[in-house]
Amino acid sequence: MKEQFASYFDKPQFKRTLAHYEKMLLSGSSFYFEAIELTDIAEYYAMQGDSKRAEAALDYAIRLHPDNIDVLIFKARARLINGHLNEAINIAESITDSNDREVLFLKAELALANNRHRQADDIFRTLIETEDYEADTYADIVDLLVDNKLTEMAHEWIDEALVSYPDNKVLLESAAYCYVQQELYDEAISIYNQLLDADAYCTLYWEELGKIYFQREEFDKAIEAFEFVIAINSEDNYYSMYALANCYFNIGNYDRAEEYYNIIHLQYPETVDPLFHMGMCRVNKGDDDQALEYFTEALATIPEGSAEQGQIYSQLSLISSRKGQHEKAIAYVNEAIRIYPDNTELIIMKGHELLCQGHYDESTEIFLEALAKDPEQAERSLFLIGVSMLENGHYNMGYYILKLLKGNPKIESTLLYPYLCLCEWVLCEKQFKETLTEALVQCPQRTYEIFTLEPAQGESAESMIQRLRTINN
User: What would the pLDDT profile of 175-192 be if each residue is shown by its tens digit?
Assistant: First the structure.
């Protein structure tokens, strides 16, 4: 819906109407507008997230057109969205034409919001009987139920409708939408493939398939779907290109991911996200210098205090830390904390940088602050603090902390065991071989990375220990 309206709101006719309306507000005068013009203006403001101006436009529409059904329906829905259910019900009851299709849908929506599901179902039954069991009516009922997160009720209507309309395009689209919301991805894939059998070049269906495969982390299939979208329509493919870039990023093909992010950056230079992601590609490739350029360029145009700005500051802090520029790293992480004051991982990053500079007491204070700020994330915070201790050579303290997390279900063993191995090797702990054996089964790649050893597939703990002893000697 939003994309459909976006193109209309860009048209000169609407812009003239909006300018005329806003001129009226500035002058304090009263101008005449058609009801549809004011509901369009209200829809525009609602899309901008400005509910007050949206409702003001509707109130003015009601003053000019007090009996207009479309205006009253829009006003009732606006009241409902803003949490005023009783007011919405009163508006709905004031509409004289109680048999109007949209009025009935409004009343069903209000009944659902009031947890009167049987009443809503009775209204739906009246609608479907009045409209002679049309497929579009079934689809509208399903969509309303899914939008209200009542997917089980929607499923019952889908089952009934598909008996009569097994190949109806609109109904199948609604059914697929419902299945996706329920995470019944196999059923949704089956429907989209059925729709593609009838319309093989529909970019919407390919895009929806791509989203499902991405959600299931079947990135190869997602790539195939999104590439097909671009092949069919070479014009505006912002979403599909972004999705493709993210797919390649997730499978570790950072060159291809950066290529797509760069295309997006060139075609949509006002967006900051592509630069950030290009920087992340370079970080993952170990190219901090180029990453620094991307992040710095993004920072120059990003809105002050935005979430993206916080993410960039945290990455700049990490890069500065890797370069040994710990004072600069603290300055960057402080900027990130200013935007995300309750983010415990950022607070721990600051403690880590202080520890890197030898400020043990100050770092301990910061670490304790992080643990106290979010007790529900205490295990994750302890893990990060333990790793920080190791990276700063405090193996005894790091080992003490990490041992506390052994067997804790909130910390994945694949994250924990390589660090435990490193501690036990450095501290000559007796259980090192036992821990290493487990690590080589659960997370061999990360274990080799921690010890900076070339991977050896199927290697035993004893063989790896011999290699470590050879290197140390």
Answer: 999 999 999 999 999 999
Tokens standing for residue 235: 């014009």
DSSP one-letter string for 120-183: HHHHHHHHHHHTTT-HHHHHHHHHHHHHTT-HHHHHHHHHHHHHH-TT-HHHHHHHHHHHHHTT
203-220 confidence digits (pLDDT tens): 999 999 999 999 999 999
Give yes or no for a contact between 44 and 86, defined as CB atoms under 8 angstroms apart. Answer: no
Domain ranges of the chain: 417-473
For residue 29, is it left (φ>0), alpha (ψ between -120 and 50) or beta? beta
Token pair 């910390």 in the structure block, residue: 411
Considering the entire predicted model, what is its pTM?
A: 0.76
By the 8 A CB rule, do 80 and 109 touch?
yes
Nearest Cα to 357, choosing from 381, 411, 321? 321
11 vs 63: CA distance, rounded Å: 27
State the Cα–Cα distance between residues 120 and 343, nearest whole angstrom. 43
Q: What 3-state DSSP class applies to 68? A: coil
For 150, 202, 272, 277, 301, the CA distances from 308, given in Å and listed in that order, are: 34, 34, 8, 11, 11
